[in-house]
Amino acid sequence: MDEHEWLAERFEAERSHLRAVAYRMLGSQNEADDAVQESWLRLSRSDTSAIENLGGWLTTVVARVCLDMLRSRESRREESLDARESDPLTLREEGGDPEQEALMADSVGLALLVVLDTLNPAERLAFVLHDLFAMPFDEIAPIVGRSPTAARQLASRARRRVQGATTDTEADLTRQREIVDAFLAASRGGDLDALLALLDPDVVLRSDHAAVAVGASPEVRGAAAVAGTFSGRARTAQLALIDGAAGVVWVTGGQPRIIFSFTIRNGKIVAIDLLADPERLRQTNLEILSE
Asked: How confident is the model at residue 111, as a pLDDT?
């Protein structure tokens, strides 16, 4: 086995953990995959002879990539930030192992992502890396360009905001399900006005490579364009819980073929991700809901 193959094998062993970190940081499966891919590109261009802890090095790299993406996202939203609702979150116990933290984060699903979206990028990074993945503050500090003490304060502020959140998780999931259900009904019925009422003006529709291969556009932006994409369609799609959050799935031959993952803020759909990659579908916790 040559060095490149060995490196690729080691990277694949870390991929699920890196994706878990990136997803909690970004709240988007497609963006998380982009961040993980970027970490591989950086690894493949680096001198690895001096890296003692490859897993830790990769976690740091993917965290830096996510921080840059969050800061870019924050600057784009700067003029339209409003007060956002939050959800309660059960925090990890000290000493938990990272894979268990990933399972815990999956268990709160939507609630976790809604809360994290209320934090600024540095707070979000410090909270995710420390409270969900047990990274020490002396390793977090260089990523955010602060001292370990300042990094601890970032996580502490984030934790207080999380613990002070007041929206009930079940109520939030019920509201999300209502929005997705209304979107599905409007899509099937070709009701453009109803679709536009549910979509944020800057909504983005993204498709993974497998969805693009079967005819989906890689990216569509804006409420009118996204509404036009869905109007009169999704007639055989079904409402479902996707990793604990309300979404839509298209099933043929008894197997899920495409899942529609929704990001909702302040009662509006701000992003829809179409996921059709078979491996991703196998990893998804899916429950079809009766309508």
From this structure: 58
